[in-house]
Amino acid sequence: MQTVIIGSGNVAYHIAKALTLKGVSPAQIFGRNEAELKNISEELHIPYSTEHLEDADLYLICVSDNAVESVSKMIMKKDALVAHTSGSLPKEILAGEYRKSSFYPLQTFSKSKELEYEKIPFFIEAENESDKNILFELASRISENVMESDHEKRKYIHLTAVFACNFVNHLFSRAKEISDSQEIPFDYFLPLIDETVQKIHEIEPKKAQTGPAVRNDLRVLALHEKLLKDESLEIYKTMNHSIQKMYEL
Amino acid sequence: MQTVIIGSGNVAYHIAKALTLKGVSPAQIFGRNEAELKNISEELHIPYSTEHLEDADLYLICVSDNAVESVSKMIMKKDALVAHTSGSLPKEILAGEYRKSSFYPLQTFSKSKELEYEKIPFFIEAENESDKNILFELASRISENVMESDHEKRKYIHLTAVFACNFVNHLFSRAKEISDSQEIPFDYFLPLIDETVQKIHEIEPKKAQTGPAVRNDLRVLALHEKLLKDESLEIYKTMNHSIQKMYEL
């Protein structure tokens, strides 16, 4: 089966790499950014093009959500299977006469960070059983954790991921901003952060909550508010309010 | 050196346990909650009391912030060293004629969750070099990572920890609430969460940010807002606003 990957960003790179490592190297990576394509091509020994889209059985569209529709119009092969990799788009966004599907990896991808591909949950949606099998087979080469998901469920998976990953990372950014402002090395906080996450492998997060808000320690909350301003102060108030609501304080 | 631990909560338990494991078992644990004291006493083989506070060279006050002052008044021994374990209180909160100090472990403690004590950063403050040495020596039995910190710096360390730990855990709670509402197992998100944290061991969090807000994907942001309500919606808006401000979007 000939597979072409469209895109040259973090997802495109890691999907291409994972497939290559499992011996099902894509026939081509296609995109606009020649410099990025060239880097990927050189590292993974996959041909690239910015102009001519190779004929393939399967096209994996690994571009940002707002580019999926326009990119999908470039695929003219009617007997192809086309999948996007977005958490929030329906497969119907794909605007062509081919078979439409979704191939969603639940992970945060950065080119410079290696990943254990085996553990990434993949969520598959297709028009029929045969296409579903093609995508299951491919995802199972990469990961031990492949499931079906329709668009409705996938939206909520993506939304949950935004809270559990994107927002968590942003809290780390704001935390580092605070510690940097006092010349406190952010490394001091890594054991605490590691433990915070290890904990929820064993204890439900609601039961693992600690800190001044859940203790209803109003003195500390008032003291902290005086140390903060702007967005960090807004986050501080919003999070504490939410904690106090959750625990009915 | 005789050490007494005051308190029967998560911090008291883990400090008592860490000291016991390193062969410097406390002479007593003292507190109000007899059931908890009894559990700790039986597990760690440390005498406990709810009434008679043992004579000691060092008292470690491991109670919640708003109880520190009143508890500190119970210590009558003038030639003792007394330390609280709070991130946000000054050592002067201790209301007695003894020598005052602070012994702050930067970690999140739950009784049911084992910890690698060696990695916990301890922050020490004392009135003089000799007391500082006593506390450094004790903390170094537990941890490889012992530092000095005055109250001003400690306040910011604690505040950073609230963002990096307490708020992160609350995001996990709200994330689980969303996935639970759709009967999506929260376990699916653990590889993503683990990776989110592994990443910041290698990449600065500001550079590791992914997700719809930093991509300025207004379509997804609007779609997600429709799926949320109440506190989760407030968090969603506040976090996205903060991300967009940080990246000047």
UniProtKB/TrEMBL annotation, chains A, B:
All residue ranges annotated as the DUF2520 domain in the record: 120-242
Domain Pyrroline-5-carboxylate reductase catalytic N-terminal: 4-78
Entries under PANTHER family matching the protein: CONSERVED HYPOTHETICAL ALANINE AND LEUCINE RICH PROTEIN
Name of the protein this chain belongs to: NADP oxidoreductase
Organism: Chryseobacterium indologenes (Flavobacterium indologenes)
